[in-house]
Design goal:
The chain contains 14 helices and 8 strands. The chain is of the alpha/beta class and 371 residues long. This is Amidohydrolase-related domain-containing protein.
Length: 371
């Protein structure tokens, strides 16, 4: 079996075989029905490597990049090559057109600039990625919307970048890597949230960069060794961010703020929210500013995505967990294109009725992103 970090080296035939195998539902049913309705794909990884963005950097930084390389931390323990789609025509031919994608949210590839202590260098990389995305992708196909890359480790620079770009209608959200040096409920990030609310932009927390650069270790026990451990540990960081955002009172300060949890699974949320509700009831005297149950904040302020959706032992359990996370309101479709986990739109959603399909594949994202 090939190492997952080498998935983008698979041949086209192997990739097709994987997609076919992954189209089996938790109950064992294959041959997913063909999808004809339009969908919104909230996670398409387009190429934003240093070769692509070099011409968008200030000349001095472009020269340093040529001489010394990007000098950005990796988002995975074992590194691994980038597998993002390299050109728009390939994306259109292989994904947007055949899968009836009415809107696709571009999420880039490397988030290394969000683990760099040199915030001004990181801000220049973010601006170059955003300008490249705007010129080479968003302006070429009006189905595409962008994610604004920012230096979350330097909020004042992040706000400047959001204010520079927002308002054009081509940007769907601001994007954070899951790896961070502080949990996201910390007031350190409040200037970014104020800018997001002012411009009606959600924040996507995208799995990656845990333990990278200046970010905190991959787990509470320390750093992990293997890619399988790292992928499993991403949930831990998302748990910390979710609890922090709720218990720090972020949504009381910013009642219009919306957060998207992407590529970290979803079904873990059910027992975790049960635990948070229980602890809030017994310890609420310590957080009097938290006015609602954590599960109520989740349902109003959070959205979660379908990549890495946990495979349940049987279909009955699948539907129980879908109900427990309020999937009708909170779950959005993401293909994670073109990474090896990508499924056909219905492959990870077995035996759900058409109303729920419509919510997950289109309506929830349309409401969040105002599409």
């Amino acid at each position: 079996m090939k190492h997952p970090s080498l998935s983008c080296l698979y041949s086209r035939e192997e990739t097709f075989m994987h997609a076919t195998e992954s189209a089996t539902s938790p109950s064992g049913a294959a041959n997913q029905p063909e999808l004809h309705r339009a969908i919104i794909d909230c996670d398409i990884h387009h190429f934003t490597g240093t070769k692509a963005i070099k011409s968008y950097l200030p000349l001095a930084l472009a020269d340093l990049l040529s001489a010394y390389g990007a000098n950005l931390p990796s988002g995975t323990p074992n590194g691994g090559p980038a597998c993002s789609v390299k050109d728009l025509a390939t994306l259109q031919e292989n994904h947007l057109n055949p899968n009836h994608v009415k809107y696709g949210i571009l999420t880039g590839e490397s988030y290394g600039m969000q683990g760099v202590g040199n915030s001004h260098y990181a801000a220049a990389i973010c601006s170059a990625i955003n300008d490249h995305t705007k010129e080479q992708w968003l302006s070429q196909d009006n189905r595409l919307k962008g994610s604004i890359f920012v230096t979350k480790q330097a909020p004042q620079l992040a706000v400047k970048e959001i204010d520079r770009l927002a308002g054009s209608g081509i940007w769907a959200q601001v994007i954070f890597s899951n790896g961070a040096h502080l949990p996201f409920g910390n007031s350190f990030y409040y200037p970014i949230y104020e800018a997001c609310v002012r411009h009606n932009l959600p924040v996507m927390i995208h799995a990656g960069m845990e333990g990278g650069g200046m970010n905190s270790p991959t787990t509470g026990a320390g750093y992990v060794t293997h890619l399988a451990e790292w992928k499993a540990s991403q949930t831990q960081a998302m748990m910390a961010h979710l609890a922090s955002l709720i218990f720090e009172g972020t949504f009381e300060t910013f009642p219009e703020l919306r957060i998207v949890l992407n590529e970290g699974g979803a079904f873990w949320l059910a027992p975790y929210l049960w635990r948070l509700d229980l602890d809030w009831k017994s310890l609420r005297v310590q957080t009097p500013w938290v006015k609602q149950l954590p599960s109520e904040y989740f349902r109003k302020h959070f959205r979660v995505t379908s990549p890495s959706l946990e495979k349940t032992p049987d279909e009955a359990i699948f539907h129980q967990y879908m109900n427990s996370i309020h999937a009708h309101d909170t779950l959005m479709y993401c293909s994670n294109y073109p990474y090896h986990e990508v499924d056909a739109p219905l492959a990870s959603l077995p035996s759900i009725d058409e109303t729920l399909q419509e919510r997950i594949l289109y309506r929830n994202a349309a409401e969040l992103y105002k599409l």
